[in-house]
Amino acid sequence: MAAPSARSRRRADAERSIARIVSAARELMSSDPNATTDDIAQAAGVGRMTLYGHFRTRADLIEAALTDALRAGEETLASIDLTGDAREAMTRLLASSWELLAESGALLAAAEGVLPAGRVRELHAEPVQRMTELIHRGQEQGVFRTDLPTTWLVSLTHYILHGATNEVRVGRLPAQDAADVVTKSIQAALSS
Length: 192
Description:
By secondary structure, the chain is mostly helical. It has helices spanning 6-29, 37-44, 48-54, 58-78, 86-114, 119-123, 125-140, 150-169, 175-190. It has nine helices and no strands. Pfam families: TetR_N.
């Protein structure tokens, strides 16, 4: 068996560096949306030049970290049983969605602060589609309201979820109460 070429070793090293940088960005920005690139490079064990060699701007790094968080979140959300009564399925979906958002709410705030308008929404395409389909099903079952556009109801759920992360972050909503508050608020807003 031939030894890996120098080029493939450099490529593997670069991939490991990228993974460490993205992981460090996710971890640091999940608690502090203002974490600096210096902080992230230090946490990743790389120099600033290495970080900027892979991510030209802080916005590029934040987008990569958010994309990675959403990919991991999608694995969780895709495993949720959304069959049966739409209200019960919504409760299960909201519980998992809240857990994911609680972990990465500050990262999301960082992304909203630097990414172009609409980009965060684009990155959320799969979760938005899942929520849309579930709301449609609930409307067909007669348990979710039909007097408002589905797109508005989906947006409303996201506004409540994201608003709750901010309320927890600033101390107006106890973290241990947030999942219940979010679920009750959204279920009330969706009920027919």
